[in-house]
Amino acid sequence: MVDSLGTRLVMEAKAGDVAAFETLLRPAILPGFRLAYAILHDRTEAEDAVQEACLSAWRKIHQLSPDTESLAPWFLAIVSNRCRWCGVAAGGL
Predict the structure, then answer these.
(1) Largest Cα–Cα distance of the chain, in whole Å?
(2) Which of 40, 74, 79, 90 would you label with 8, given CA atoms 20 to 30 Å apart?
(3) CB-hemisphere CA count at 13 Å for 62?
(4) Contacts of 25 (CB under 8 A, 6+ apart)
(5) What is the CATH number of the domain that holds 79?
(6) Is the predicted pLDDT of residue 14 greater than 60, yes or no?
(7) What does the pLDDT read at residue 81?
(8) Alpha helices of 1-93 — where are they, by DSSP H?
(9) Percent of the residues in the chain that have a pLDDT greater than 70, as a whole number
(10) Residue 16, phi-psi category: left (phi > 0), alpha (psi -120 to 50), beta (remainder)
(11) 62 three-state secondary structure
């Protein structure tokens, strides 16, 4: 069985390879920011939410399935949850 590049990168990231994680995450950053901004309507809050989501994704990388090829859907869910948490903490949402 031949692994795809994405699957290989996920396995490497799960093993602690920061460069592999960054390679996987890079394409999801802008969509993550757009989602956060759409939810929070504030650039600074959206940037903070994405930054926190990046840290959370790194801490939870072990939760990804070994056959995952793209971090994007998982990362966007983390961003969305982070935005909801920010909204609740701020007394909104």
Answers:
(1) 51
(2) 79
(3) 3
(4) 54, 57, 71, 75
(5) 1.10.1740.10
(6) yes
(7) 96
(8) 5-14, 18-40, 43-59, 72-89
(9) 89
(10) left
(11) helix
**Locus of tokens 């949850």:** 81
State how far the Cα of 26 lies from the Cα of 39, in Å rounded to an integer.
Answer: 21
Is residue 2 predicted with pLDDT exceeding 60? no
CA 76 vs CA 1, 12, 13, 20: distances in Å:
29, 21, 18, 18
Place of tokens 């960054």: 22
Cβ distance 50 to 43 under 8 Å? Answer: no
pTM: 0.84
Q: Give the residue numbers spanning the domain of 49.
A: 5-89
Q: Are 71 and 57 in contact (CB under 8 A)?
A: yes
Phi then psi dihedrals of residue 15, to 5 deg: -85, 0
- Reply yes or no on whether the pLDDT at 88 is more than 60: no
Looking at every residue in the chain, the average pLDDT score rounds to 90
- Domain count of the fold of the chain: 1
